[in-house]
Amino acid sequence: MSRGTLFDKVWQLHTVGTLPSGQTQLFIGLHLIHEVTSPQAFAMLRERGLPVRYPQRTVATVDHIVPTAGQERPFADAMAEQMIRALETNCAEYGIRFYNIGSGSQGIVHVIAPEQGWTQPGMTIACGDSHTSTHGAFGAIAFGIGTSQVRDVLASQTLALGKLKVRRVEMNGSLPAGVFAKDAILHIIRKLGVKGGVGYAYEFAGSTFEAMNMEERMTVCNMAIEGGARCGYVNPDATTYAYLKDRPFAPKDSDWERATSWWESLRSDPDASYDDVVVFDARQVAPTVTWGITPGQGIAVDEAVPRAEELAEEERPLAEEAYRYMDLLPGTPIAGTKVDVCFIGSCTNGRLSDLREAAKLASGRHVAPGIKAFVVPGSEAVKRQAEAEGLHEIFLAAGFEWREPGCSMCLAMNPDRLVGRQLSASSSNRNFKGRQGSATGRTLLMSPAMVAAAAIRGAVTDVRTLLEPQR
Amino acid sequence: MSKILTVEGRGIALAGNDIDTDRIIPARYLRSISFDGLGEAVFADDRTQQADHPFDAPHFQGARILVVNRNFGCGSSREHAPQALSRWGIQAIVGESFAEIFFGNCLAIGIPCLTADADTVEQLQRTIVQSPETILTIDLEALQVRLPQQSLPLALAAAPRQMFLSGHWDATGQLLANIEAIRATAARLPYMG
Question: B6-192 domain in CATH 3.40.350.10?
Answer without folding.
Answer: no
